[in-house]
Each structure stands twice: as structure tokens, then as C-alpha cells.
Amino acid sequence: MQEGKVEEAFRIEYEFISQTFPGKYGQALDEMMAYTRQQGLISSPA
Q1: What CA–CA distance (Å, rounded) separates 20 from 39?
Q2: Which among 13, 7, 15 has a CA at the least distance from the CA of 41?
Q3: Burial environment of residue 7 by CB neighbours within 10 A (0 to 12, 13 to 18, 19 or more)
Q4: Which terminus, N or C, of the chain has the lesser number of Cβ atoms within 10 Å?
């Protein structure tokens, strides 16, 4: 994240959590991604 790769870090974490806990944190992850997009931290959807 120090190198400005915030989007990549979020994508990696999103995929890891989604695959490790299928169906468990989907809504929370979607809310997190929507918030980070709204704040301008990332631009692409998960």
C-alpha cells in the first residue's frame, strides 16, 4: 500500500476472504468495496 497499490491490495484481500469463507462475509465485503469506491480510494468494482 505504500507504493500506491491500494486497489490491488483490496482486490487480493477481497478474493482471499471470499474464497476462504464462501458466503459468510459477502455483504460486508461488498459494503467495504462500495465505501472505498465512494471515498475515491479505488475505482474498479471487485
Answers
A1: 27
A2: 7
A3: middle
A4: N
